[in-house]
Amino acid sequence: MIQRTLSIIKPDATARNLDGAILAMIQEAGLRVVAMKRLHLSCEQAGGFYAVHKERPFYNDLCAFMSSGPVVVSVLEGEDAIAKYRTLMGATNPEKAEDGTIRKRFAQNIEANSVHGSDAPETAAFEIAYFFNALEIVG
Ligand code: RTP
Ligand code: MG
Fold this sequence. Notes:
Major role in the synthesis of nucleoside triphosphates other than ATP. The ATP gamma phosphate is transferred to the NDP beta phosphate via a ping-pong mechanism, using a phosphorylated active-site intermediate. GO terms for molecular function: ATP binding; metal ion binding; nucleoside diphosphate kinase activity. The chain is α+β, with helices and mostly antiparallel strands and 139 residues long. It has one domain (2-131): Nucleoside diphosphate kinase-like domain (Alpha-Beta Plaits). 40% of the residues lie in helices and 20% in strands. The chain is built from seven helices and four strands. The chain has helices spanning 11-15, 19-28, 43-49, 59-66, 81-89, 102-106, 121-131, and strands at 2-9, 32-39, 71-79, 115-117. Strands 2-3-1-4 form a four-stranded antiparallel sheet, with helices on both faces. Helix 3 crosses helix 4 (59-66). The longest helix is centred in the C-terminal third of the chain and has 11 residues, at 121-131. It is globular, with a radius of gyration of 14 Å. The protein starts with a strand and ends in an 8-residue tail after the last helix. The protein binds ribavirin triphosphate (RTP) and magnesium ion. Ribavirin triphosphate is lined by residues 58, 62, 92, 110-111, 113, 116-117, 119. Ribavirin triphosphate (RTP) binds next to strand 4.
Protein backbone atom coordinates (compact mmCIF):
# COMPACT_ATOMS: atom_id res chain seq x y z
CA MET A 1 0.00 0.00 0.00
CA ILE A 2 1.42 3.40 -1.02
CA GLN A 3 1.34 5.75 2.00
CA ARG A 4 2.57 9.21 2.95
CA THR A 5 4.27 10.15 6.22
CA LEU A 6 5.59 13.39 7.71
CA SER A 7 9.30 13.63 8.47
CA ILE A 8 11.05 16.34 10.48
CA ILE A 9 14.81 16.73 10.55
CA LYS A 10 15.14 18.25 14.02
CA PRO A 11 17.26 21.25 15.16
CA ASP A 12 20.10 19.08 16.56
CA ALA A 13 20.60 17.63 13.06
CA THR A 14 20.29 20.87 11.05
CA ALA A 15 22.79 22.46 13.50
CA ARG A 16 25.32 19.79 12.51
CA ASN A 17 24.54 20.19 8.78
CA LEU A 18 23.18 16.63 8.58
CA ASP A 19 20.10 17.35 6.41
CA GLY A 20 21.70 15.95 3.27
CA ALA A 21 23.04 12.81 4.95
CA ILE A 22 19.63 12.06 6.49
CA LEU A 23 17.77 12.70 3.23
CA ALA A 24 20.23 10.36 1.47
CA MET A 25 19.38 7.58 3.95
CA ILE A 26 15.66 8.25 3.36
CA GLN A 27 16.04 8.02 -0.40
CA GLU A 28 18.29 4.97 -0.21
CA ALA A 29 15.49 3.26 1.74
CA GLY A 30 13.23 3.76 -1.28
CA LEU A 31 11.11 6.61 0.11
CA ARG A 32 10.34 9.55 -2.21
CA VAL A 33 10.40 13.18 -1.03
CA VAL A 34 7.16 14.63 -2.46
CA ALA A 35 7.23 17.93 -0.49
CA MET A 36 9.87 19.74 1.58
CA LYS A 37 10.51 23.03 3.38
CA ARG A 38 12.94 24.54 5.89
CA LEU A 39 11.33 26.42 8.80
CA HIS A 40 12.22 27.95 12.13
CA LEU A 41 9.19 27.11 14.31
CA SER A 42 8.00 29.26 17.17
CA CYS A 43 7.45 27.55 20.53
CA GLU A 44 3.69 27.84 19.92
CA GLN A 45 3.94 26.25 16.47
CA ALA A 46 6.01 23.36 17.88
CA GLY A 47 3.47 23.01 20.70
CA GLY A 48 0.58 22.76 18.26
CA PHE A 49 2.37 20.06 16.33
CA TYR A 50 3.02 18.05 19.53
CA ALA A 51 -0.40 18.74 21.10
CA VAL A 52 -0.88 14.97 21.72
CA HIS A 53 2.04 15.15 24.17
CA LYS A 54 0.64 18.13 26.11
CA GLU A 55 0.31 16.20 29.38
CA ARG A 56 3.73 14.51 29.15
CA PRO A 57 6.51 15.73 31.50
CA PHE A 58 8.85 16.41 28.58
CA TYR A 59 6.35 18.61 26.63
CA ASN A 60 7.75 22.06 27.53
CA ASP A 61 11.35 20.96 26.95
CA LEU A 62 10.35 19.40 23.65
CA CYS A 63 8.65 22.61 22.43
CA ALA A 64 11.73 24.65 23.42
CA PHE A 65 14.05 22.21 21.66
CA MET A 66 11.96 22.04 18.47
CA SER A 67 11.97 25.85 18.22
CA SER A 68 15.69 26.22 19.05
CA GLY A 69 16.81 26.20 15.41
CA PRO A 70 15.76 25.34 11.86
CA VAL A 71 13.93 22.14 10.97
CA VAL A 72 13.45 20.50 7.57
CA VAL A 73 9.93 19.12 7.19
CA SER A 74 9.07 16.79 4.36
CA VAL A 75 6.39 14.44 3.12
CA LEU A 76 7.71 10.98 2.27
CA GLU A 77 5.83 8.64 -0.03
CA GLY A 78 6.26 4.94 -0.66
CA GLU A 79 5.17 1.40 0.03
CA ASP A 80 4.29 1.14 3.73
CA ALA A 81 5.95 4.55 4.24
CA ILE A 82 4.87 5.07 7.87
CA ALA A 83 6.34 1.84 9.25
CA LYS A 84 9.27 1.89 6.83
CA TYR A 85 10.37 5.34 8.03
CA ARG A 86 9.85 4.44 11.74
CA THR A 87 12.14 1.42 11.20
CA LEU A 88 14.73 3.59 9.44
CA MET A 89 14.63 6.18 12.28
CA GLY A 90 15.26 3.62 15.06
CA ALA A 91 14.20 3.77 18.71
CA THR A 92 13.33 7.14 20.32
CA ASN A 93 16.25 6.64 22.74
CA PRO A 94 19.37 6.35 20.54
CA GLU A 95 21.02 4.05 23.10
CA LYS A 96 18.36 1.50 22.12
CA ALA A 97 18.41 2.20 18.38
CA GLU A 98 19.56 -0.53 16.01
CA ASP A 99 22.67 -0.33 13.85
CA GLY A 100 21.99 1.26 10.47
CA THR A 101 19.23 3.55 11.75
CA ILE A 102 19.28 7.35 11.53
CA ARG A 103 19.10 7.76 15.32
CA LYS A 104 21.87 5.23 15.98
CA ARG A 105 24.08 7.12 13.58
CA PHE A 106 23.23 10.73 14.42
CA ALA A 107 21.02 11.21 17.52
CA GLN A 108 22.57 12.83 20.60
CA ASN A 109 20.08 11.78 23.30
CA ILE A 110 16.40 10.86 23.83
CA GLU A 111 15.25 14.43 23.10
CA ALA A 112 17.80 15.60 20.51
CA ASN A 113 17.18 12.51 18.42
CA SER A 114 17.56 14.07 14.96
CA VAL A 115 14.28 13.01 13.30
CA HIS A 116 10.53 12.73 13.70
CA GLY A 117 8.21 10.43 11.75
CA SER A 118 4.43 9.99 11.94
CA ASP A 119 3.35 6.89 13.86
CA ALA A 120 -0.05 6.05 12.23
CA PRO A 121 -2.22 7.00 9.23
CA GLU A 122 -4.35 9.39 11.33
CA THR A 123 -1.35 11.21 12.81
CA ALA A 124 0.30 11.35 9.37
CA ALA A 125 -2.79 13.08 7.94
CA PHE A 126 -2.82 15.65 10.76
CA GLU A 127 0.93 16.25 10.63
CA ILE A 128 1.12 16.60 6.82
CA ALA A 129 -1.79 19.08 6.85
CA TYR A 130 -0.07 21.01 9.69
CA PHE A 131 2.77 22.00 7.33
CA PHE A 132 1.62 21.56 3.71
CA ASN A 133 -1.36 22.36 1.53
CA ALA A 134 -2.40 20.16 -1.37
CA LEU A 135 -0.60 22.29 -3.99
CA GLU A 136 2.71 21.89 -2.15
CA ILE A 137 2.72 18.09 -2.40
CA VAL A 138 3.86 16.81 -5.77
CA GLY A 139 3.86 13.05 -6.08
P1 RTP B 1 8.78 11.34 17.14
O1 RTP B 1 7.34 11.53 17.59
O2 RTP B 1 9.60 12.61 17.21
O3 RTP B 1 8.91 10.63 15.84
O4 RTP B 1 9.48 10.38 18.19
P2 RTP B 1 8.90 9.11 18.90
O5 RTP B 1 7.53 8.76 18.40
O6 RTP B 1 9.98 8.11 18.80
O7 RTP B 1 8.81 9.63 20.40
P3 RTP B 1 7.57 10.23 21.21
O8 RTP B 1 7.34 9.36 22.40
O9 RTP B 1 6.42 10.52 20.28
O10 RTP B 1 8.18 11.59 21.75
C1 RTP B 1 8.26 12.71 20.89
C2 RTP B 1 9.61 13.34 21.05
O11 RTP B 1 9.71 13.90 22.35
C3 RTP B 1 11.08 13.84 22.76
N1 RTP B 1 11.15 13.05 23.99
N2 RTP B 1 11.81 13.45 25.04
N3 RTP B 1 12.94 13.63 27.60
C4 RTP B 1 12.25 12.54 27.30
O12 RTP B 1 12.11 11.61 28.03
C5 RTP B 1 11.67 12.50 25.97
N4 RTP B 1 10.92 11.52 25.49
C6 RTP B 1 10.60 11.87 24.24
C7 RTP B 1 11.88 13.19 21.64
O13 RTP B 1 12.40 14.23 20.81
C8 RTP B 1 10.80 12.40 20.93
O14 RTP B 1 11.17 12.11 19.60
MG1 MG C 1 5.92 10.18 18.30
